[in-house]
Amino acid sequence: MELTLAADQLAELGHSTRLSIFRLLVRAGHGGMSVGDIQAKLDIPGSTLSHHLSRMSKVGLMQQQRDGRTLYCTLNFDAVNALLGFLYAECCAGDQPLRVENL
After folding, report:
1. Structural domains in the chain?
2. pTM of the entire structure?
3. 61 membership: H or E segment, kind and range
4. Could you tell me the sign of the dihedral formed by the alpha carbons of 78, 54, 4, 91, in that order?
5. pLDDT tens track, the chain, 103 positions
6. CA distance 2 to 40
């Protein structure tokens, strides 16, 4: 994963409304959640929700799919896993190995 993409995705999650949307979509799983249900849960105007969903889609965190008259949002779990992998990739790389003489 590129540093720029990771920074862009994290920046979008740095807003409380978008983080709330993200958490709802995590709970919804692969089936996603309708835009109307997201709006009802967060109690925000449709235009505001549309703005936030657009920003999350732009950086690849989620996608939308229409089923008849209902628009569903689903988290892009591959992108989320890539972002988490990027964040953990260097985990503990700087730790000194444990040596018996240090005990």
Report:
1. 3-88 (1.10.10.10)
2. 0.87
3. none
4. negative
5. 899 999 999 999 999 999 999 999 999 999 999 999 999 999 999 999 999 999 999 999 999 999 999 999 999 999 999 999 999 988 887 776 656 665 5
6. 35
